[in-house]
Each structure stands twice: as C-alpha cells, then as structure tokens.
Amino acid sequence: MSREKPPPGWHERQRTLRRLSAMLRENEAAIAEAVCADFGHRSAVETRFAELFPSLQAILHARRHLKRWMKPRKRGVSVWFKPASNAVIPQPLGIVGIVVPWNYPVYLAIGPLVAALSAGNRVMIKMSECVPRTGALLARLLEGALGPELVRVFNGSVELAEQFVGLPFDHVLFTGSTAVGRKVMRACAENLTPVTLELGGKSPVIVGPDADFRRAATSIVWGKMLNAGQTCVAPDYVLVPRGRRVDFAGALGVAANEAYPVLAGNPDLGAIVNAQHYARLQAWLEQARAGGATIRCINPDGADLSAERKIPLTLVWDCPPDSELMQQEIFGPVLPLLEYDSIGQAIEFVNSRPRPLALYLFSDDAAVQRRIVGETVSGGVALNETVLQVAQDDLPFGGVGASGMGHYHGYEGFLTFSKLKPVFRQRRLNGLTLFRPPYGRSVALLLRWMLRR
Are residues 305 and 372 both part of a single domain? Predict the structure, then answer.
C-alpha cells in the first residue's frame, strides 16, 4: 500500500462506504454461515443482530455525518495576533492496521474499518486464526468490493500477527486480551506507532437495593448468554444486596429457562469457540468448586451438552477471591454472584479491582445512579441494561487502564484515525511588524503591558 496518493475527498469516501454496505447486505447469509461454522454453532440471529446490524448502522451513521466531520474547524486567536486566523483541518493518517479478535470477527473488523475509511485512510486487517472461514470470506469480499489498494485482509498464525503489528503503520487498533495488548503495544513502540487498545476485563453488574429483579435478571441473562458469554462487555460478575442472593439467583434461573427452555440442540444457544476454551472454562469451574464454591447450572432438562461444546448459564457463589473465575475475564456463560452491605461497599469493591471495560447498574434511584457513575471509573456505563451501550454510534467506545486506551465509533473513531492539522493564517497587514528586530523602546513598552495583562 502506498501513502503517496492524495487523500480521498467526500464523494470518494461516500462511494467506498456505499460499496461496503452493499457487500454486507448481499452476503448476509454467507457471513452468518461462516461464523457458525467457525464456532461449531452460533445462531444466525445473533450474528445478524450483534455483527451485521451494528456494522451497517455504523456505515449509515458515518455517511450521514461525514461531510460535517471533514469540515475545517475555526479556532480562536489571541487578540495579540489578530487579524490572523486559526483552524484545524482533519487529514487521514495514512495506513491503519486493525487486529481483529475471534469473538465478533465481523463487527470488530468492520467497525474500525468504517472509522478508518471515513477518515480517508487505507487499511490492513489481520483476522484471528481461530475463525479461518470467516477470515477467508472477509478477505475475498472486502478486497473484491473495495480493492486491495484500499483494504487488504490477512489470515494466518499467531506468528503472522506478531509480524503484522511490527509493521510501520500510522496507527494500530487492536481488540483482544490485556495480556496480548501489552505485547502489541511493545511491538508498536519500536516504530513509534500510536495504538488504540480495546481490551476486556471483568465488567461488574451492581443490582441496586430497589432493583426490579425480574427486569434485571432478564437483561443480565441476555447479555451473559449472547454469543455464549464470549463478549468483551458481557456481565462478568454480579453484586447483589446482602441476604438477597438466593432470590436473585432464582430470578436468573427463571429468566434463563424462559430464554432457553430446552438446551440440547437449541439453535439459539451458542457454542464455545473451540475445545481449548471449553476446557479452560471447565477447569476454572472445578478449581472454584475445590475451593468451596457452590455451582448451579441452569439446565432444566439435565442435557449433556459437552458434545456440542455448549455450557448452560452457570451461577457460582462463595467463589474464592484468588480463583481464576474472580481474577480473569471469564469469557463464557459462567456468572459469580457476590453480596454487598451498602452501595458504598459495592463501589469500593469495583474500585479495588482493575478498571473494567463496562459497568452495569440496575436501579431507578437517581442518587444511586449518580454515585455509581460519578464514583467509579470504567470504559462505559449502562443503566438498567447490558451490552447495548456498544451499539450506540454517537457514543465513543473504549476502555481505561487495564481495559484499554483510546476509543472509536462515530465521530470519535473519525478523530482517532485523523490528524487534526493546525493551520495559522496571517493577513498581509498585521501588528506583529512592531515586534521585529531591531528591538527598541516601543517593543519594551508593549511587552511590559502584555506581561501585566
């Protein structure tokens, strides 16, 4: 890819986004089939809702607002430099590298791609080796629709990914684990490549004392079971008021049974992506059980789902604090339940841990909402809902601390992949000639006045 071409104008960027949208629409079924094959099983409804729909909405949002985003913006100028003027002009960075994880391989490729293309960049994408069918399909579709001079897609091993992030990109956006994010940042530092890291972490749910348990449980079950819990903003653990854990566990069980009345062969229930991750989750559950935890699987028909590589919603309480389930991002349909005595204690517990990518609160109490929003630090907050904050095109998406750095989506994505070039424009007639050497008495008097203001 070359950096030598002039940046594309508004019309060209619009054409690119239209082609991208048309490609996704024309290949919905093929994309859903590829993702399902890579996972062993994933509902086509979930792929359409959680990957294709937000991708198309991101394109639509960018197309509607792109002209305004691209306009130069006037900035103020000090009275001492008038009649000069200041402005910032957004310009593309050049060539952007996007590293895509396996859990949402379509949306987490297309979302950053839309932002980078809207800003006028060329893009190279590294797909995850865990989803080879989806990666191969996207390579063919994207390069066919947009051309390899604009977008290139690479599929291959972890070693290829390491080489990829070591290239001298103008910006790299990586989505994945915190541990791998550190390696990406080190590799990019060699080329002084700026990075946006979209990581994960343990996103907490706080169930307020006034919460409607049925409403909260229905949302939590949906957010936790979407893509079998393999979502970076999935609820990771739940804090409930002291003495109400059993009641809330019952509400979660009812919600899970309503959503998945039969588990074996259920097309709505997603599979764990591969045997390695399935074994990881089973090992973490066994470790917690050995440490004294109580584990309850919401499995109404007692089905054996191991052959399908599926796991029902699994509730855990009295989980040892040093267990993997409480130390690592779970990334599966396992949900620890913890109790708190006061909202202050719940806040203290959240703040004592690495900063999460998402935080969820179920409460209609305005004072409690203000405290949670104001006294915690997280990548984002959703009140009385889970996961859907990610799908808001006019909200930035990104983490903080261990859950990431930088953000994208909508205008913030356009800014992430742009250089806001400052431009100072001087007029022919201006007062700065008074400050040119040789310096004399008039300059000294002016400076004395300026420095006292």
Answer: yes
The phi, psi pair for 389, rounded to 5°, reads -60, -25
Q: Is 176 within 8 Å of 101 (Cβ atoms)?
A: yes
Where are the alpha helices (H) located in 226-365, listed in sequence order? Answer: 245-259, 275-290, 324-327, 343-351
Looking at the structure, tell me whether residues 253 and 179 fall in a common domain: no
Res. 246: pLDDT tops 80: yes
Q: Look up the pTM and report it.
A: 0.94
For residue 409, the model assigns a pLDDT of 97
Q: What angle is formed at CA 265 by the lines to CA 260 and CA 268, rounded to 5 degrees?
A: 45
Write the CA distances from 362 to 49, 98, 126, 357, 369, integer angstroms: 24, 34, 37, 17, 9
pLDDT at 111 over 90: yes
Closest CA to 226 of 436, 100, 51: 51
Order the strands of the 122-126 sheet from edge to edge: 151-154, 122-126, 95-99, 171-175, 195-198, 404-405
Mean pLDDT of 157-176: 96
Say whether 297 is catalytic: no
Task: Answer whether residue 434 shows pLDDT above 80.
Answer: no
Q: What is the pLDDT of residue 348?
A: 98
Residue 339, beta-bridge partner list: 240
Residues 37 and 136 in one domain: yes
- Whether 198 sits among the annotated catalytic residues: the reply is yes
Integer Cα distance of 138 and 134 in angstroms = 6
Catalytic residue, chosen from 232, 308, 319, 329, is 232
Query: Which residue range(s) make up the domain with 106?
Result: 10-199+401-420
Candidate list 36, 46, 51, 198, residue with the active-site label? 198
Question: Same structural domain for residues 209 and 185?
Answer: no
Amino acid at 118: S
Clarify whether residues 61 and 122 are in a common domain. Answer: yes
User: Helix, strand, or coil here: 86?
Assistant: strand
Pairing of strands 359-362, 381-383: parallel
Q: Is the pLDDT of residue 411 over 70?
A: yes
